[in-house]
Amino acid sequence: APQNKTYLTNISILLNYSVSYEDFVWYNIDLTGDNTTITSSTEFNTTEDTHTLYLYANNRIS
Fold first, then answer.
1. Measured between alpha carbons, how far is residue 22 from residues 17, 26, 55, 56 in Å?
2. Gap between the Cα atoms of 36 and 1, Å rounded
3. Contacts of 6 (CB under 8 A, 6+ apart)
4. How far apart are the first and last CA of the chain?
5. Distance CA 29, CA 49 (A)
6. For residue 50, with 0-12 CB atoms within 10 Å meaning exposed, 13-18 middle and 19 or more buried, which class applies?
7. DSSP tag of 48
8. If 41 and its partner were Cys, which of 5, 16, 28, 58 is the partner (CB 3.0–4.6 Å)?
9. What's the whole-model pTM score?
């Protein structure tokens, strides 16, 4: 289940997820800029501020 986390410094944040039958998985931070397509868990950095991460998964089976 998603967790609401607060990080007090600019650190590398692990985005770990699990899905079945995915065709595409992508994320966007603060709904700005381009989506970032990923194929497995990944790490990323952000600026020091409040941010919201949106994670999407699409499958064509259902």
1. 12, 11, 13, 10
2. 21
3. none
4. 21
5. 12
6. exposed
7. S
8. 16
9. 0.76
**Could you give the CA distance from residue 62 to residue 57 in angstroms, rounded to a whole number?**
12
43, 7 Cβ separation under 8 angstroms = no
Domain ranges of the chain: 13-58
User: What distance in Å separates the CA atoms of residue 14 and residue 37, rounded to the nearest whole number?
Assistant: 15
pLDDT in tens, the chain (62 residues): 667 877 777 778 889 988 887 788 999 999 988 999 999 899 988 888 888 899 999 877 75
* Structure confidence at residue 27 (pLDDT): 94
